[in-house]
Write a structure and sequence with these properties.
Helix content: 40-55%
Shape: globular
Order of helices and strands: EEEEHHH
Distance between the termini: 23 Å
Strand content: 15-25%
Number of strands: 4
Length: 85
């Protein structure tokens, strides 16, 4: 289990919470993405690391766009829960 500020990730149960709200709409790869970032706090996580760990594929020139799409989608989900609270 990892807690960073308002974010709580329980990897044993594959659940992610923002404050007390479960982010149930996240898929498994998005949960793994948040876990990777939380686990690597105070370290630089490059696009290459993200792509290679989440997709298990080598990094290519256009791969960074996939990680930015994840960031945008997760930001929208958290923002939705933030405004609902």
């Amino acid at each position: 289990m990892i807690q960073k500020g308002k974010l709580l990730i329980d990897w044993c149960y594959h659940t992610v919470y923002w404050r007390e709200h479960e982010l149930a709409t996240l898929n498994e790869r998005e949960k793994a993405f948040l876990y990777l970032l939380a686990e690597s706090s105070r370290q630089v996580v490059t696009h290459e690391i993200i792509i290679e760990q989440l997709w298990k594929e080598p990094y290519e020139d256009d791969s960074a766009n996939m990680s930015w799409c994840f960031v945008h989608r997760i930001d929208l989900i958290i923002e939705e829960y933030f405004h609902a609270a």
